[in-house]
Automatic annotation (TrEMBL):
GO biological process terms on file: negative regulation of CD4-positive, alpha-beta T cell proliferation; negative regulation of type II interferon production; positive regulation of gene expression
Keywords: Lectin, Repeat
Name of the encoding gene: LOC107703760
Pfam families per UniProt: Gal-bind_lectin
Protein name: Galectin
GO molecular function per UniProt: carbohydrate binding; galactoside binding
Amino acid sequence: VLRCLIRNGFTQTVPFCSPIPGGLLEGMSITVCGRVFPDANRFHVDLQNAADVALHFNPRYNSGGYIVHNSRLNGVWGNEENKAPTPFPRGHLFTLQILITLSSYKISANGKPFSEFKHRMPLTHVDKICMAGMVRPSLIAFQYLEKVPYKSIIDGGLRSGKVIIIEGVINPDGMEIFLRHKTGIAFYYSPRFDENVVVCNSYEDGTWGDEEIYELMPIEIGQPLQVTIFCSHQGYEVFVNGEQTHTYSHRYTNLEEIDVLDIRGDVQLSFVQP
């Protein structure tokens, strides 16, 4: 069951601070979407407790553009951890995701793993997110997802242009994604680390079809993963961490009847858009 709180309407309210319902928990994911101003010099996203800052994520646009990671405890800033180039160009839309683990914040930018920042204060102390600078945020979402198996109805079934997004951390035993209809499986997608492949297939009339097998990369054990499945007229286009990796032609063409997303295996899910 996905429990999700989304806060919209921040386009005119920077700077702002928003409470994090229940505080941070292992496995929680925070997603921030918005647009950087064309003339931006910097902006920041902070995870805070009172005046303490557990994570200061600070894109800066001087010196070619880079990201500052830091923390502030008892009024004192710590050592900066910088990374270049910035993944958020001026004037562009962006998506920032922060996955909370027991040891660190795993940060993804526009669907791709970007950086990691080790905890300098207990994650359970963090109770708000603050944002300021030359940016126009459009969405903040806090997501918690219980363990797989995960199953959700796809409202209205599939159609050309439908996008399904799955985010989390995959573990050594891999995972399986099923797009189902009443009598079969229209699309089966399974990264398998023991064979170093991704297997795609369909199940109709009680029988599995011919497997389509692809190289596993760029999926990595223990790293943040985003799988995006785009349904087109011709088939399914699969993007992994923002890069198109696989295509699979429709074998079952009554798209509106494909109405169940089923995820199983050894994966910690942080966000699902069925």
